[in-house]
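Honest question from a wet-lab person: if I give you the sequences of every part of a complex, can you actually get the arrangement of the whole thing, not just the pieces? Trying it with mine:
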Amino acid sequence: MIYYEILCYSCKRKFKVYEGSLKYKQFKEKRNRIFCCEDCSHKIRMDAIKHFFR
Ligand SMILES: [Zn+2]
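Yes, you can. This is the full assembly:
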């Protein structure tokens, strides 16, 4: 299986994106944009929701 190893900008851990996923496509198009792993994107989303309801 083809994948890229991308550094998460939030937790600084490497994570893999597999061919066919949205992140894989985004990374292929723009390698200099920032990415975060599933855990962090989930956390960020939850924080945004919490903030929204405050
Ligand atoms: Zn992360």
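Two things worth pointing out. Residues 38-53 form the longest helix (16 residues). Strands lie at 3-7, 14-18.
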